[in-house]
TrEMBL record:
InterPro entries: HotDog_dom_sf (IPR029069), MaoC-like_dom (IPR002539), MFE-2_N (IPR054357). This is MaoC-like domain-containing protein. GO terms for cellular component: peroxisome. Signal peptide: none annotated. Pfam families: MaoC_dehydratas (PF01575), MFE-2_hydrat-2_N (PF22622). GO terms for molecular function: (3S)-3-hydroxyacyl-CoA dehydrogenase (NAD+) activity; 17-beta-hydroxysteroid dehydrogenase (NAD+) activity; enoyl-CoA hydratase activity.
Length: 307
């Protein structure tokens, strides 16, 4: 375990998180769409303008499904959690899973129920899985659920190496990394991130200096600030909505993304998609380095009528 890191599984897993409130407005929705590359290449893009503009006013704009990931905030970076001490500079976002139960309104106040659903000792790192269920305060309805996996470098080794600690109450089929098919993809979409992408995206609420401060990025092992994982996920799912859903984001039901490698703002993202029933398997690569940076799946409510 690295200096200053300490994990006590008993304390951490028995911690009861107080209910959290999260409020967003149409301005947040539009800013998020721009932060994840919406309308960047084409300001009148038919599929994307609806996330930032409506002729009858902002309260009619649509919400991208990946916006749901923001409801978590930055999890353990925000608050002290008993039994969890780690170096925040070494934290990386490992994975994100989202289930959407209702279309997201253009503004809302949410009541969030947070819990720890997984903890693993990987020796060099600890993996923490957190879940948040988000209820619309006005209607009491469950809108969505998020599960975030956090990779804490240097925080492993808190259990016996002969029998490393591992706890999960998450169905394994929801979280395991996907197998990329060998066939040619159904579709491929190329999109450029801006050199200022992380500076724009952070205004959606994740102010982790890893994405903006060159000194912090260097201390974390990167040559320059890196892009937020959730920003890359936003680009990938937007590509799938465009290529497979023909712009209809209401078809999206569940989303999984595993962050395989960091992205530097300004790099080009190529997302490849394969269709398996109503599931879209995808992989995003950085064109300049020819490396896969994200993979996962998007489950759709229906598909056949579209293709
Ligand atoms: C609650 C939500 C709050 C979110 C807060 C987020 C705050 C943000 O500001 C932070 C960010 O956005 S960081 C940017 C996005 N993330 C990244 O760039 C990370 C990219 N991934 C990597 O670098 C490596 O995959 C890396 C380093 C993650 C792993 O690579 P390696 O060290 O080579 O690991 P490896 O030896 O391959 O595997 C060790 C064990 O870990 C499991 N694992 C690997 N990658 C994982 C991943 N991405 N997610 C979850 N688990 C992962 C492996 O399965 C392996 O376990 P096992 O030995 O049992 O197979």
């Amino acid at each position: 375990m690295g200096d200053g890191s300490h994990i006590d599984p008993r304390l951490l897993l028995s911690h009861k998180f107080p209910e959290d409130t999260y409020t967003y407005t149409e301005r947040d929705v539009a800013l998020y769409a721009l932060g994840t590359g919406g309308c960047t290449r084409n300001a009148v893009d038919h599929d994307e303008l609806k996330y930032v503009h409506h002729e009858d006013g902002l309260k009619h704009i649509k919400v991208l499904p990946t916006f749901a990931a923001l409801f978590f905030g930055t999890g353990p970076l925000d608050k002290k959690i008993p039994g969890l001490q780690f170096d925040p500079q070494l934290l990386l976002h490992g994975q994100q899973y989202i289930e959407l139960y209702k279309p997201l309104p253009s503004n809302a106040t949410l009541k969030n129920k947070v819990s720890v659903v997984g903890l693993h000792d990987k020796g060099k790192a600890a993996i923490l899985e957190m879940e948040v269920k988000c209820y619309d305060e006005a209607s009491g309805e469950l809108l969505c659920m998020n599960r975030g996996t956090i990779f804490l470098r240097g925080a492993g080794g808190f259990s016996e190496s002969s029998q490393p600690y591992s706890y999960s109450n998450v169905p394994p089929n929801q979280v395991s990394a996907v197998k990329i098919p060998k066939e040619q993809p159904f579709a491929k979409f190329e999109d450029c991130t801006l050199p200022s992408q992380a500076l724009l995206y952070r205004l959606s609420g994740d102010y982790n200096p890893l994405h903006s401060d060159p000194r912090v990025a260097k201390a974390a092992g990167f040559s320059q600030p890196i892009l937020h994982g959730l920003c890359t996920l936003g680009f990938a799912v937007r590509a799938i909505i465009k290529c497979v859903c023909r712009g209809d984001s209401s078809l999206v039901k569940n989303i999984l993304g595993r962050f395989l490698l960091h992205v530097y703002p300004g790099e080009t993202l190529i997302t490849e998609m394969w269709i398996q029933g109503s599931r879209v398997i995808y992989q995003t690569k950085v064109k300049e380095r020819q490396r896969a940076v994200l993979s996962g799946y998007v489950d759709l409510h229906r598909l056949a009528s579209l293709l």
